């Protein structure tokens, strides 16, 4: 028995020119579809620079509604190419209320569902709490014509709880639109440790949940508009990970590229028979997991 899906992960740099960055994403989608992809994952906030390096109220002008420009553009493209697209945008939900949102567009161009980023960082160069209200849609997979998608966003990828809750709700794969990079001032050995940790934690989610993982990250240097930091060098390394943590495909740290991989979603059944983590979970003993800390 086989239930195959061909996935495409698009990695590219951003310039801050909205029309140009959208065109770059569209070109990547077209190239991946030409290679057989019927599900596309784009990187976090792919239609512009990563503006969260600085707190600036003018950046709220970048937000858009759902439906809006991105869902119109990528919905039309999804319908034209008969493909499911996961795009990422700065959502204006209401005046004064904004989210970091991933939107899943069906093959007919309709919105299959949304995920609003739950874990919001607030660190030098990543001042997301200034812009984004934490998500309120929970860890709920989105049903599509190509499968049930466990969509999460960037900082969410460091939390095993998020991946597990998606798996427990029936997600058939985990997808992470991402924007993460090095501080150019960090020594090279520290940069290497950070990137390897990022790869390792996502491979761990695949292993612990017996699910494939897709991660799309941007590349290129983006300066800090405030001049207070050295900016961010995004490390790319987008990847498709198999059910036992194997790297099925991975991009490098510098090149715009598309990863295209065929997955058999029925493999989860086989691997979970070998490694029955869900069967052996001690749910009677996990009550303290909802505490901030066990004092």
Automatic annotation (TrEMBL):
InterPro entries: Aliph_Amidase/BUP, C-N_Hydrolase, C-N_Hydrolase_sf
Pfam families attached to this UniProt entry: CN_hydrolase
Record-annotated CN hydrolase domain positions: 5-267
GO MF, one example: N-carbamoylputrescine amidase activity
Coiled coil: none
PROSITE patterns hit by this protein: CN_HYDROLASE (PS50263)
Keywords: Hydrolase
GO biological process: putrescine biosynthetic process from arginine
Domain of life the protein comes from: Bacteria
Name of the protein: N-carbamoylputrescine amidase
């Amino acid at each position: 028995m086989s239930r195959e899906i061909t996935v495409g992960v698009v990695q590219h740099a951003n310039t801050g020119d909205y029309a140009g960055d959208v065109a770059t994403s569209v070109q990547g989608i077209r190239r991946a579809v030409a290679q057989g992809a019927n599900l596309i994952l784009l990187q976090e906030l792919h239609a512009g620079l990563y503006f969260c390096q600085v707190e600036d109220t003018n950046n709220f002008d970048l937000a858009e509604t759902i439906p809006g420009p991105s869902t119109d553009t990528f919905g039309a493209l999804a319908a034209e190419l008969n493909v499911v697209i996961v795009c990422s945008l700065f959502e204006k939900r209401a005046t004064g209320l904004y989210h970091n949102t991933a939107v899943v567009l069906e093959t007919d161009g309709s919105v299959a569902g949304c995920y609003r980023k739950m874990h919001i960082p607030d660190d030098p160069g990543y001042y997301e709490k200034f812009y984004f209200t934490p998500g309120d849609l929970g860890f709920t997979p989105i049903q599509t014509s190509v499968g049930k998608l466990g969509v999460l966003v960037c900082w969410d990828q460091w939390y095993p709880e998020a991946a597990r809750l998606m798996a427990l709700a029936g997600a058939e794969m985990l997808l992470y639109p991402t924007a993460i990079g090095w501080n150019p001032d960090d020594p090279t050995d520290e940069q290497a440790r950070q990137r390897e940790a990022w790869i390792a934690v996502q491979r761990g989610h695949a292993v612990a949940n017996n699910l494939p993982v897709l991660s799309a990250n941007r590349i290129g240097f983006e300066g800090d508009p405030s001049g207070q930091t050295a900016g961010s060098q995004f490390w790319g390394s987008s990847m498709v990970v198999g059910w036992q943590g194997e790297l099925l495909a991975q991009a490098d740290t510098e090149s715009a590229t598309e990863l295209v991989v065929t997955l058999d979603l029925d493999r989860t059944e086989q691997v979970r028979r070998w490694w029955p983590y869900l069967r052996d979970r001690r749910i009677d003993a996990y009550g303290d997991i909802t505490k901030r800390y066990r004092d």
